[in-house]
Amino acid sequence: MKRGHQVTMKEIAKKLGLSVSTVSRALKDSPELHPETKLKVVEMAKSMNYQPNLLAQSLRISRSKVLGVIVPELTSHFFSSNISGIQDTAYKRGYNVMICQSNESYVQEISNIKILVASQVDGLLISLSRETKNYQHLQDLYDRGIPFIMFDRVTEEIPVSRVTVDDANGAYQVTKHLLEQGCKKVAFISGPQDLYISKKRKEGYLKALVEFGITEAESRVYISDLKEETNKQIAKQILEEADRADAIFAMIDPLAIDVMLVLKEHGVRIPEDIALAGFTNNPTSSVVEPSLTTVVQPGYEMGKIAANHLLDQLDEIASDDPQSFILDTTLIARNSTLKKK
Amino acid sequence: MKRGHQVTMKEIAKKLGLSVSTVSRALKDSPELHPETKLKVVEMAKSMNYQPNLLAQSLRISRSKVLGVIVPELTSHFFSSNISGIQDTAYKRGYNVMICQSNESYVQEISNIKILVASQVDGLLISLSRETKNYQHLQDLYDRGIPFIMFDRVTEEIPVSRVTVDDANGAYQVTKHLLEQGCKKVAFISGPQDLYISKKRKEGYLKALVEFGITEAESRVYISDLKEETNKQIAKQILEEADRADAIFAMIDPLAIDVMLVLKEHGVRIPEDIALAGFTNNPTSSVVEPSLTTVVQPGYEMGKIAANHLLDQLDEIASDDPQSFILDTTLIARNSTLKKK
């Protein structure tokens, strides 16, 4: 269904300097608003030739009681935890959940949105694919008035609510912990540089270094595409360097496990020779030897908050104005970094 | 939508001693069939007051190009591998995939089917919840002519195609391997007894014992509800027994890992004192110490075969007659059982 530009509530709100939620309530003739405000909104809507989106309205009125979820991948423990949180919350509130996986593909993400919207879901919870750099599909969804929010992999370019974890602070905590254990030369193995989490975690890593008097110029950042082969290659490279690192912070746990295997193969003692930490708290991390220091991301909690907020918006308990929820991470120090017990 | 009993193609087929596929083709006036057969089917259909299901027909004609998938849980590596296999295959053939999770709940499974059918998926791939003991919802789906097949957690009560792995043979392989390593007293820790995989894996375990001259009376079977606490409790119980086992075959890898942690806590050497093996090949199993001997279930392959078969049925390349695909498992012997290197 292609169509020309339709005036959105957002545009009316912008012209009047009001929130989208106020415009929405004014057009619904909400008794909470001052009659003058309502009149102002209605007149502006008329002058801009605003046409309420009937599809969106009918969606809101006759509910399917189904939420759609789009995640980049399902094999990741983090995203499957998100989904569990979303689903448990949705069920408690009488909703079902349909899930699509974008497989980290931008094209697939667009088609996921299309089929979920065609299935008349009441709202969507979206975590973006690694490839998504253009947000027109999300803008279209927004302009059609279909309620959605974003979680974990988000963009700030669309004015909808977002739920994320405090990546920078998590990376700060783990780097600081390594420095407090007496490590002087902490390396950071990052994922692809354009990933939001790569940027945020590097930010936290650098912040901790600076606090311990280490400049960015003295930092040791390695970039991996996160494939097993590359991860292991970088670990070998670090081992061969003359001025070798005495600690490694790997951006995600699976990367840390690959590094651990290489260190052990080469007879490097962990943490005595090189301390090692990851990020995510995958189930594997607590059972490897030595057990891996990592950062807990509250995946289940994140799903719960995202689902509750979207349902609150649908039930008009929460305003449609975008909110940003940033969840705290927690450091779990385990044997891979604990030098002094 | 409740309705009275509708005569199905299956019932017509049964009366005539023909396959459902033949009846279906006869009612479609397929040129492949002998005119006499077609006449026989059409007359029987009339006499039984058969009414073709228009919804199902319209589904088959105007395709949504979406497959629905129902799995018990998404946090399991095995099911997320199934989904990857299904999805990759579907995409290659121009289909999208929508996924629902039953959370091991029978009630949820029924509502999953309802919303996917309401979304007009072209067909369904279903893996049953642990709770599902009644199959009326599947029978209804079958009677409505909505194409579906089952994978991994299946029932033989509904005449649709099934894709499973050879659980009994996998368990036989791993038990035989333990006995070949010189173990004399192999314990089997099973999941709940009414689970299909518990039954099949026990069957394979007993078969191997018998081959080595050990009777069922001499077998050592322990039952766990698969919760961490119970798993660890059973491991402790085995350690305390006077005539202690010298090998443990745990029904699934996460159970084996729980057992491993207890053995290590108690200073039991693996495999020297007690050899240990699991089943599934979770990612964790290769990185624990000692690395865990296990059985590979081809989860991705299973999803691929299931999706291809369903799409072949939709495209009328494969017959609608139920087929059973049983996939081979592969033993991976690792350090947790290899006594002689």
Number of strands of chain A: 12
Helix vs. strand class of chain A: alpha/beta
Per CATH, the class of the largest domain in chain A reads Alpha Beta
The pLDDT mean of chain A sits at 90
The rounded Rg of chain A comes to: 24 Å
> What is the name of the CATH topology of the largest domain in chain A?
Rossmann fold
Number of domains of chain A: 3
What does this structure look like?
Chains A, B: This is Transcriptional regulator, LacI family. Chains A, B: Residues 7-61 form the HTH lacI-type domain. Chains A, B: GO terms for molecular function: DNA-binding transcription factor activity; transcription cis-regulatory region binding. Chains A, B: Keywords: DNA-binding, Transcription, Transcription regulation. Two copies of one chain form a homodimer. Chain A is an alpha/beta fold. Chain A folds into three domains: 9-52, lambda repressor-like DNA-binding domains (434 Repressor (Amino-terminal Domain)); 64-160, 3-Layer(aba) Sandwich (Rossmann fold); 167-297, Rossmann fold (3-Layer(aba) Sandwich). Chain A has helices spanning 9-16, 20-27, 35-47, 54-61, 77-92, 106-118, 136-143, 167-180, 196-211, 228-240, 253-265, 299-314; strands spanning 66-71, 96-101, 123-126, 148-151, 162-165, 186-190, 220-223, 247-250, 275-277, 294-296, 324-327, 330-332. Chain A has a six-stranded parallel sheet with strand order 2-1-3-4-5-11, with helices on both faces. In chain A, α9 (196-211) links the parallel β6 and β7 (220-223). The termini of chain A are far apart. The relative contact order of chain A is 0.13. The mean pLDDT of chain A is 90. At the A-B interface, α5, β2, α6 and α11 of A face α5, β2, α6 and α11 of B.
